[in-house]
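Design a sequence for this backbone.
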């Protein structure tokens, strides 16, 4: 497919970054990521279940439990960043009381359209905004919690997004990031590689007609920093009490940090 072949010419002196296993100009990555999610948006939720064998649900349950929105009328503002089709946002809205308000922000209009449709169907009162995690059109210190699930590895300048998340959190606010991580259990790592590089692109091709989009998603998982390194990046953005909890043998990790 044209997506992997385009925009890979290296301009002398220009910063490069990873797009899966390719090196691409930093300034080109976001458009390439957007192409991936344009292609998969309509089948995104089905593919999430198929690819993870439904495991994204318990992983997201752990995330939502950690958000711990108040049950009562107490005001609680959550920003679910790179929120896509709204999955995490809806779960927090369901768990929280009437004081909980959820904003789902994503850079991709196609993903948000699917999300708005889901919200209308289920009667969720959630605000959707089209926004880049690197430049949030949101005021300083406006959220009690910010979540990002399976989104941060797609953002070209992760440190810029972390600074933005820190900026929009209230003092005492909680940042929670669910992301694929590093499997280091002997045996499980080989099985996981076999599954990721063979089964996932094949299922992606069958369901969305786009194996390459899913190859990118798998490759981008392998290029994402190890959890200790990512925890250091969270600390460098100014967060305190930074920790992470690996799940399912390190397939994913839940990272946590506080704006104090
Ligand atoms: C794998 S999906 C995750 C969606 C959702 N959080 C979930 O767990 O189902 C990644 C999302 O990140 C979004 N994304 C990528 N780059 C972004 C950016 N710079 N700012 C905001 N969202 C971005 C994509 O559009 C996509 O919807």
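Sequence:
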């Amino acid at each position: 497919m044209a997506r992997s072949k385009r925009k890979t010419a290296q301009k002398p002196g220009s910063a490069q970054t990873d797009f899966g296993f390719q090196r691409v100009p930093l300034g080109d990555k976001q458009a390439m990521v957007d192409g991936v999610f344009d292609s998969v948006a309509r089948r995104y939720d089905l593919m999430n279940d198929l690819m993870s064998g439904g495991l994204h649900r318990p992983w997201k349950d752990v995330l939502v439990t950690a958000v711990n929105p108040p049950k009562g009328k107490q005001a609680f503002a959550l920003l679910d960043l790179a929120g896509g089709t709204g999955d995490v946002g809806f779960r927090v809205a369901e768990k929280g009381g009437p004081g909980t308000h959820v904003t789902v922000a994503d850079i991709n209009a196609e993903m948000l359209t699917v999300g708005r449709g889901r919200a209308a169907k289920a009667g969720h009162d959630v605000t959707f905004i089209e926004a880049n995690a690197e430049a949030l059109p949101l005021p300083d210190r406006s959220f009690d919690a910010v979540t990002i699930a399976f989104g941060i590895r797609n953002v070209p300048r992760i440190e810029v997004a972390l600074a933005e998340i820190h900026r929009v959190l209230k003092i005492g606010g909680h940042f929670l990031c669910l992301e694929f991580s590093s499997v280091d259990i002997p045996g499980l790592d080989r099985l996981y590689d076999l599954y990721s590089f063979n089964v996932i692109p094949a299922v992606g091709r069958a369901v969305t007609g786009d194996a390459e989009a899913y190859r990118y998603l798998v490759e981008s998982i392998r290029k994402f920093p190890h959890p200790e390194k990512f925890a250091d990046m969270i600390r460098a953005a100014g967060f305190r009490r930074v920790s992470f909890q690996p799940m399912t043998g390190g397939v994913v990790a839940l990272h946590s940090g506080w704006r104090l």
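Residues 41 and 185 are 32 Å apart (CA to CA).
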